[in-house]
Design a protein that fits this description.
Number of helices: 6
Shape: rod-shaped
Number of strands: 0
Largest sheet: none
Order of helices and strands: HHHHHH
Strand content: under 5%
Helix content: 55-70%
Number of domains: 2
Distance between the termini: 50 Å
Structural class: mainly alpha
Low-confidence stretches: none
Radius of gyration: 24 Å
Length: about 110
């Protein structure tokens, strides 16, 4: 984060973006991004993640897809139970349905 703090100090000393990029040897887009973030948020630190993390992992999605390919007649409830037994994931039938819909499986 040394670059960000140096960048802001230089900006406060009324140096141009071009001078700062030459001084710090960073791209102009990086310099502009740091300054914009500092002006909007008052800090250059990363902000907390917005929204809830996904419940199902990529491995769980792959297992779900394989389960559906093996037997397309299974209900969302039975797929949820299968994932619970194999991966230990507690997933609702609505989540299973939403994930399958996102993968292109309908009906």
């Amino acid at each position: 984060m040394q670059t960000a703090s140096t960048n802001i100090c230089e900006r406060l000393c009324n140096k141009s973006i071009r001078d700062i990029t030459l001084l710090l040897n960073i791209p102009r887009s990086t310099d502009s991004g740091i300054i914009t973030k500092w002006k909007q948020l008052g800090t250059t630190a990363n902000q907390p993640q917005s929204g809830r993390p996904r419940k199902i992992t990529e491995r769980g999605q792959h297992m779900q897809k394989c389960t559906v390919h093996r037997n397309r007649q299974l209900s969302a409830g039975s797929i949820a139970k299968d994932l619970q037994m194999s991966c230990g994931l507690q997933i609702s039938t609505t989540t299973v349905h939403r994930e399958l819909h996102g993968m292109g499986f309908h009906g």
